[in-house]
Amino acid sequence: MPGKRRTPAPSRRRASARKAILSAAVALCREDGYARLTIEGIAARAGVGKQTVYRWWPSKGAVVLDALDEEVAAVLPVPDTGDVLADMRTVVTAVVTLLADARWGPLIAALLGEAQHDPAVGASMVERFITPRRAPMVRRLQRAKAVGHLPAALDPAAVLEVIFGALYHRLLLHTGPLDAAFASFVVDLVLGRLAVRRARRGAP
Amino acid sequence: MPGKRRTPAPSRRRASARKAILSAAVALCREDGYARLTIEGIAARAGVGKQTVYRWWPSKGAVVLDALDEEVAAVLPVPDTGDVLADMRTVVTAVVTLLADARWGPLIAALLGEAQHDPAVGASMVERFITPRRAPMVRRLQRAKAVGHLPAALDPAAVLEVIFGALYHRLLLHTGPLDAAFASFVVDLVLGRLAVRRARRGAP
């Protein structure tokens, strides 16, 4: 993929075509839904040839995943106030806000759906989108274990599967609101009784 | 849908066509994958006209959901040994076994995927497949609340969203094995510290 420094004209053109393609994919998804998205449609909207899209991406799912990856750019920060439960509530509430956002939630749901029919999309999604974004949460849970605020045997990645699983359940099946109350409910249910509270740390 | 008693010949023919269509849909899904499934293919395999399929089902997702609903016929029983944690481990292990079964897991994953592109499939899936199968688990959790083995404020349906969310996470994203160890891990993480143990009930 094109770099940003010392870019000769062909690289700049590539970067600009790439950006046009990603923007076109997101715009078309939002207008017509992921199911109607085609590589042809993306190419037409971006003003490039179909082969230009296929040169960089194997499928429409791969284009949308890259768009999502670049536009939901910031890996959500995880605070460390010393209270792991409060910190996890903060970050999971931010995740829920993203999933409930009409600009992003439907794209993420569509990719989780596409992953069931195109396994390469699922594998890329885990590797490039999900794992890097959970890494700061894994580190926060590990620090809590290190200082004895969470049981040493707890598997942070598995805990996050349970928490994110609950969020995806509502995202995919619309079984209830994706809101701050649900974020706190899930974090408290999963971690609430495991976490050593700050109050107790200060106790004699 | 055709009944089973006092069926005149046309009803029997309908029942037999219906069964042939559902079997064809499942067989084709397993052979070629859900993504390649078409109403035309189902009709050809079942030896009926395309219009016969469309008369009863609006989409291929609806056919597969009905097939799943009828073939995963038994609503999994939930034991009541007095130990809600052990009983939930038992039933969630049975669910995990079903999801890990190559005959059923991929069909359920495909329908969860299709639901992202065809909202009617998602709504039917929740209403006709998921909710009835969770009902005995909801009742088991409610009984545990009634006898003080779980906190009175606990929302059984929301608890099941967290538990099933974790299972769907592995089903949809292949982030780890769907096995009895994961079933017990999830049940213990979500309910373990909430549940009053049998041992404690017997204590003075």
Record keyword descriptors for this entry.
homodimer, 204 residues, mainly alpha, 10 helices, disordered C terminus
Instruction: State the end-to-end distance of chain A.
Output: 57 Å
> What kind of assembly state do the chains in view correspond to?
homodimer
The helix-strand sequence of chain A is HHHHHHHHHH
Pair of chains with the largest interface and how many residues each contributes: A-B, 42 and 42 residues
Helix tally of chain A equals 10
Overall outline of chain A: elongated
* Main structural class of chain A: mainly alpha
The average pLDDT value of chain A, as a whole number, equals: 90
- Structural Rg of chain A: 20 Å
Query: What portion of the residues of chain A fall into strands of 2 or more residues?
Result: under 5%
- Sheet with the most strands, sense and barrel status of chain A: none
In total, the number of strands of chain A is: 0
Residue runs with pLDDT of under 50 for 5 or more positions of chain A = 198-204
Helical fraction of chain A: 55-70%
